[in-house]
Amino acid sequence: MADVSTAYQQSLPSVPPWLNKGDNAWQLTAATLVALQSMPGLVILYGSIVKKKWAVNSAFMALYAFAAVLICWLLLCYRMAFGDKLLPFWGKGAPALSQKFLLQQAVLPESAHFREDGTEESAMNKPFYPMASLVYFQFTFAAITLILLAGSVLGRMNIKAWMAFVPLWLIFSYTVGAFSLWGGGFLYHWGVIDFSGGYVIHLSSGIAGFTAAYWVGPRVKSDRERFPPNNVLLMLAGAGLLWMGWSGFNGGAPYAANIDASIAVLNTNICAATSLLVWTTLDVIFFRKPSVIGAIQGMMTGLVCITPGAGVVQPWAAIVMGILSGSIPWFTMMILHKKSTLLQQVDDTLGVFHTHAVAGLLGGVLTGLLAEPVLCELVLPVKGSRGAFYGGSGGVQFLKQLIGALFVIGWNLVSTTIILLVIKVVIPLRMPDDQLLIGDDAVHGEEAYALWGDGEKYDPTKHGSLYSEQTRVTNEQQYDHTRAVGVTIHM
Fold it and tell me: What is the DSSP letter of 90?
């Protein structure tokens, strides 16, 4: 034993009997992949998909959320989402910072599932790695939810209001969905299937983002009418990090490096590829040319749609889900949005309602139809779960998926509204018009690109101007700022 490296000795305190090094290595890897989706993935995507004058602000909103969520998660929110039961939809908040807590074997204390007669049907979920790995993995899910939500309010939300909104929404909205569906809450024990966040993350961020966009108000008219990406290639780089990171997103959901993790990763990529191809095909048919932005949107809806069922559907079902996720959100974004008065009135900057709320709801409903019984048996606490396609209790499962979605939608509508109205009392939700006209330089004193000399920002007193700054501002202020028009992502 003396010749064996310390890391591999089995009798040390650092290698307790319950530790499975393979599971621990995969969980840390999966968590890091999910973290890379946000930082730098969505930071790059947001910074490049928006108009140049909002590149810094958009990237910063994502960066801030990533850091703020981690601290709030450790101080209070992890145990609200995955700790001991306080209410049927909420856990008891407490810090997750002590060595004693983080080095013990991971456990979800409310996950033991019992039959109606009181006998145990599924044992408490106790992965073979320390709590620190589970806390970090679940943090990355919480962080990306807030960052996805930010996509609805880019280009006009007051950065100070955003800084206040992030911890409040994490506490009063995200933790409720997470505990209810994952942490041992009432939807978890009722048998609603959300394998890796179709409801907890995507439906919630889409509904909350749309709600926030309504309360914050629209961008200035010139931004609403023309909002081209400032760097298409960097946008693709951010999207690529998002796609590849999704293997950790869905592959880490079983909490083990088991066979279900493998099928989840494969299904994830199948659905994303199918959805991207369908979306691009529809672009070519209706707009006569393929669009990079459209391809990214199709990729996104495919990834979102497969998430609630990634580990419980067969690969052929993943293709079916990809076909539908590449066509139904395409229809709601490109056709229905332009004809709907309600959708037109809300300025959802990146169309998060379509790419996440619609696709997440679609994925949850399709899981209620296509969940395969053997795969369900591998990971779900309620035994005998199956989709309606497989008969038996599948019809009831489909109903459960619908009711679970209604709970998530309702809670996010109400909680997001209350949070923003409270913040509005002390901090304006929308930037003032003078900042909206200028963008990053007015908000942060920074700009994304140096176009005038070695790092200089454009200065009309030095570089000249076709017309005075005062004239430009006066002309801009004549626009109507009260009504959102169309969806931001144009082909």
Answer: E
